Amino acid sequence: MLPQLLIATPDDNSLSLIYSILDAALCLTPFDIATAEARSQAELFERIELHQDDIVLLDWQLAGSETPNLVRDLLSRNPRLRVVVLLPEHYRPYRQLIWEAGACNGIPKEHMDQEWLSTVLCIMYRAMEREDKLSAK
């Protein structure tokens, strides 16, 4: 099983930061992850319709204050999807809203590091393994 991570961000600097942290995080995990990118909401929806991605790392910049609604929309199109939202520092109150919308995790982008990302990815990977075993029964 090779999990597919979709990185959804409109910003080149954020994309570079995410890949840098992801590379370091993968050194701490016992598995690999395939990646893809969506640079706009239209690209994100195109990818979600394909049902190829397991995890979406969603940058708040893609939808701003509409991010909780975007999370709901993504999960209505693919309920098996795991959504992790990168929040801006000054929007901490939105963490509760993204959780209520169905996101698995959210963190201010400034606090994201390889330890956090490796832990989140490992938890999701193990959950997917268990779901696959349960589906096989």
Nearest-integer average pLDDT: 93
Within CATH, the superfamily carries the name: Response regulator
Largest sheet report: 5 strands, parallel
Helix-strand string: EHEHEHEHEH
CATH class: Alpha Beta
The chain-level structural class is alpha/beta
As for the CATH topology, it is Rossmann fold
User: In which range does the helix fraction lie?
Assistant: 40-55%
| Count of β-strands | 5
Number of structurally distinct domains: 1
Shape: globular
Going across the major beta sheet, what is the strand order?
2-1-3-4-5
CATH architecture: 3-Layer(aba) Sandwich
* Number of alpha- plus pi-helical segments: 5
| Structural Rg | 14 Å
Beta-strand fraction estimate: 15-25%
Low-confidence stretches: none
Report what the structure shows.
The chain has 137 residues and is of the alpha/beta class. It has a single domain (4-136), classed as Response regulator (Rossmann fold), CATH 3.40.50. The chain has 5 helices and 5 strands. It has helices at residues 12-26, 41-50, 67-77, 94-101, 114-136; strands at 4-8, 34-38, 55-59, 82-87, 105-108. Strands 2-1-3-4-5 form a 5-stranded parallel sheet, with helices on both faces. Helix 1 (12-26) packs across helix 5 (114-136) and helix 3 runs parallel beside helix 4. The two termini are 17 Å apart.
Topology:
Elements: E1 4-8, H1 12-26, E2 34-38, H2 41-50, E3 55-59, H3 67-77, E4 82-87, H4 94-101, E5 105-108, H5 114-136
Parallel strand pairs: 1-2, 1-3, 3-4, 4-5
Keywords:
alpha/beta; Rossmann fold; five-stranded parallel sheet; 5 helices; globular
